[in-house]
Amino acid sequence: MRVINSPAEVIEISQRHTEPEPHVLDGMVDGAWLDAQHFPPLQWSVQGIVPEGFGLIVAPPKAGKSWFVAGIGLACATGGLALGKISVSRRPVLYMALEDGHRRLQGRFRQILGEGVPIPKDLHVIVKAQPLAVVAMISEFLDRHSDKAPLIILDTLGKVKPPKRAGEDAYTADYAIGTKLKDLVDAVSGSSLLVVHHTRKAESSDFVDAVSGTQGIAGSADFILVLARKRKSDDAVLAVTGRDVPENEYALTTSDGRWSLDGMDLTDAAATVESRQQKTALADRSMEILRFVSSRPETTAKDVEAEFTDINNNDAGTYLRRLHEAGHISKPRRGTYSPVSEPSEVSERYESAGHTDQGEPSVSDASHTSDTSLFAATEGIA
């Protein structure tokens, strides 16, 4: 027979018999309970772009993502217009610009805001942080402003991402980082955490695959923004997806560090993306026809129709006529076209852009096929 030796042991035994044992299904609820709940509506830092929760903004180096998030932060701290068109509510903003200094940020903010506009007091800036301290910093800021739906911008993830431990699975490590950040912002209703990250170098048809690292980072995020801009171009596309975000692509433009929607609103900016794509496709076809004409002594609309089976005789004639009007091909007689005596600048650029014998552009140089000098050869062609 076992002897009880102390009052503490008596209490322990008593609690053991009165407290129910934890059960693996203790967190389970039924449909009736769920149906009876009333949850607050989803809040947005930037309507249609940045919802509450943890999200990523990814782009290649020097694509302008730091200017992009700076503009978002300034708009939210001021309560003005984000991307020049989207009305936002004023809220506290923490901008952790860990790749910049105070002088650079001051110049950047002043350039975005415009001459004479003060930097808003509700924008708070941190430029130095140790990786292990970032979580505590974010948590403290959220606690201080928990009643005001704060926005936190972390630029960049690479500055605070801890190294993977020996033997640790890369996906598990990435997912743990993302989950930790998500847990912080989920604890404060209405708050958003936007983290700047880089894209991977590999090409992909799915823009979510552009997120650098394993799928652990992307998988832990509530939403993902992918900013795509070609070098030396003011035009860009912002692809948006997420658990609670309507998936779409929006046309943007940038000038002097200011990012703006290319359209009156999100719907208009989405339509602009489609319009740009159609122009690019038409310009690509013009270049293919230009190459075809340049490879032959003479070409007629009937020849083009036979070569490109998806083009009818009328459209073929329109392409040829406009290429001639732009000076890219000659017209020795009515209805007949031939190469110019000297290769046009566009033709030379087309040949040097890595096109194959079939006239198809290489993936890496596809941007060259949208040369604006060929848009004239595509207007009015459906």
TrEMBL record:
> Which taxonomic lineage does the organism of this UniProt entry have?
Bacteria, Bacillati, Actinomycetota, Actinomycetes, Mycobacteriales
Q: Where is this region: Disordered?
A: 326-382
**What's the name of the protein?**
RecA-family ATPase
Tell me which domain of life the UniProt entry assigns to the organism this sequence originates from: Bacteria
Q: Which InterPro entries match?
A: P-loop_NTPase (IPR027417)
Quote the biased-composition stretches of kind Polar residues, using this chain's numbering: 359-375
Which Pfam families is this protein grouped with? AAA_25
- Regions of biased composition (Basic and acidic residues) lie at 346-358
